[in-house]
Each structure stands twice: as C-alpha cells, then as structure tokens.
Amino acid sequence: MPIKMLIMAKRRPDLTPEQFREGYEQSHSRIAVNLFGHLWTSYSRNYLVEGLRFKAVGAGWTGGPADLHYDVISEYIFRDAEAVEELGRIALDHIEMIKEDEALWFDQENSWSVTCETVDEDLTAPKPPLRRWADVTASD
Fold first, then answer.
1. What stretch of H or E contains 75?
2. Which residues, listed in sequence order, are joined to residue 113 by a DSSP beta bridge?
3. What's 37's DSSP letter?
4. What is the pLDDT of residues 73-128, one digit of tens each?
5. What is the rounded radius of gyration, in angstroms, for the C-alpha atoms of the chain?
6. Beta 40-47 vs 72-78: how paired, if at all?
7. I need a labelling partner for 66 at 20 to 30 A (CA). Which of 43, 50, 82, 125 fits?
8. CA–CA distance, 61 with 84 (Å, rounded to integer)
C-alpha cells in the first residue's frame, strides 16, 4: 500500500526565497532523488506563494510564506512500508552529507516531516445533497 510523506520546510532566515528555492532544486532535491528516488512513485515540491487565512475569506490574499510558516511542502509517495524502511537504512549510511546539506538551506528547528493517511475523492461520483454538519448531527 502506498505511503505519503510530506516535508513542510522553512528556509534559513538569512536566505531569500529565491536562494532557498535554487538551493533546494540544485542541491538538496538532487541528493534526495539520487539516494531515494527508486523508492518513490512520485516526488513533488510545492513552493508557497500566497495564502488566505480562513477567517479572512473575502478579504483577499492575506499573506505569503513568512505568514504561512513554511516555504515549501514536498510530497513523496512511497511504494510501500518496506520502501520507507529502506529510506531509513540508506539515510543512515549518508546521514552526514544529508544533514550538512539540510543545514545550508533549511531552518531545521522549524521544518517537519510527516506521514499521511490520504482520502481521495471520487469526483466522478454523484454529488450527495449539500448539508451542514449541524444538520447531519441533528437528524441522527
């Protein structure tokens, strides 16, 4: 069963977004692909541009990466749990190089790696009636 991992990364404070992106694209992601690419079915990097705070809907875009606390959200899809375990073994063999490169680009204290349980919506299925949660729980 595929496993999704997200890396929510913040750049070092002394780097501009452009410097961070260039470093991630030209250095860190190349290391990742060379070491781990055979374990993934997909790898994408999503650079945050601007955001809208839910509370401010209708007020326009209210912030960028600094307000969002992250500069990039990278997504890795692993073939299976064995591939995740293999990543751990390979990472240990190259830990010094990985950590040295991370230290060049990332605010390591404020960057995270998480695994996810994903729910994919079937957008071709008939749409259920539009109901608010309060209406659903009141009818039970």
1. strand 72-78
2. 7
3. G
4. 999 999 999 999 999 999 999 999 999 999 999 999 999 999 998 888 899 999 88
5. 19
6. antiparallel
7. 43
8. 37
Edge-first strand listing for the sheet containing 3-9: 40-47, 72-78, 3-9, 112-116
Model-level pTM?
0.81
Contact 8, 111 (CB under 8 A): yes
Contacts of 5 (CB under 8 A, 6+ apart): 75, 76, 78, 84, 113, 114, 115, 116
Could you identify the residue written with the tokens 């990472």? 91
- Tell me the two tokens of residue 75: 């997504």
Phi, psi (deg, nearest 5) at residue 75? -125, 125
Tokens of 55: 């509370």
* Residue 94 CB burial class (10 angstroms; 0-12, 13-18, ≥19): middle
Helix, strand and coil in the chain, % to nearest 5: 45, 20, 35
- Half-sphere exposure of residue 75: CA atoms within 13 angstroms, side-chain side: 11
Give the closest residue to 45 by CA, choosing from 105, 92, 129: 105
Residue 98 CB burial class (10 angstroms; 0-12, 13-18, ≥19): middle
